[in-house]
Amino acid sequence: TPSSRCAMACSRTCSRILGLSLGATALFAAATNTALLFPNWDVTYLLRGLIGRQAMLGSGLWGGGLMVLTAATLISLMGRRHGCFRKSGPCQSMLTALLSSGLALLGALICFITSGIALKDGPFCMFDVSSFNQTQTWKYGYPFKDLPNRNYLYDHSLWNSVCLEPSKAVVWHVGFFSVLLCISLLQTLLVVIHFINSFLGLFCSLCEK
Fold it and tell me: Where does the chain cross the membrane (predicted)?
């Protein structure tokens, strides 16, 4: 019927928009994780191996980045009906939609969990151990990880007093990992919308037949 054909066209248009949106978020996630590897835009910390675990894990590069970008490409191709998707039936389209949604959701969740852990543990930086015991020694580590009775995220007085190097380590860490957290949440929302859109497209395709 004309109404079902119109609905299918809208579903394909929605897929194209969702694919482009997911692709853009994937590129932002990769760029954000890359920035975390260069505190204060200084390459020496990376060369010396003085980068935190979560940043080195690179979940924004391969999780929220590459995995989501791959899924976004599939979703966009489905919306444009290029190549092997041109004559694909409803079942094949639904299977592809499920696979692409699952891949994007997995990548987004990995990025979200890693960013949450990173924000909880705090930045990897040089700090004065004498703040925690009687030995005056400077070392690299996670000074906020086991900080008793104080949450550094809410106590901004700790941001410039604990980490000695890199300068503004807390601001850099909190800022970019918060961005990654928001990007992964947005990616999850887009995946849910794509999933619903795919079901509507399948329903309209079956109605047309």
Answer: 55-77, 98-119, 170-196
First to last CA, the chain: 9
- Return the domain boundaries, the chain: 2-121+169-208
Amino acid at 2: P
Look at residues 59, 33, 79, 49 and name the one whose alpha carbon lies nearest to residue 140: 49
Model pTM? 0.85
For residue 159, the cross-strand partners are: none
Residue 204 CB partners (closer than 8 Å, separation 6+): 4, 7, 8, 11
What stretches of the chain show up as alpha helix (H) in DSSP? Answer: 2-36, 44-47, 53-57, 59-61, 68-80, 90-121, 169-208
**Structure token digits, residue 204:** 């309209």
Spatial distance between the Cα atoms of 104 and 106, rounded to a whole number of angstroms: 5
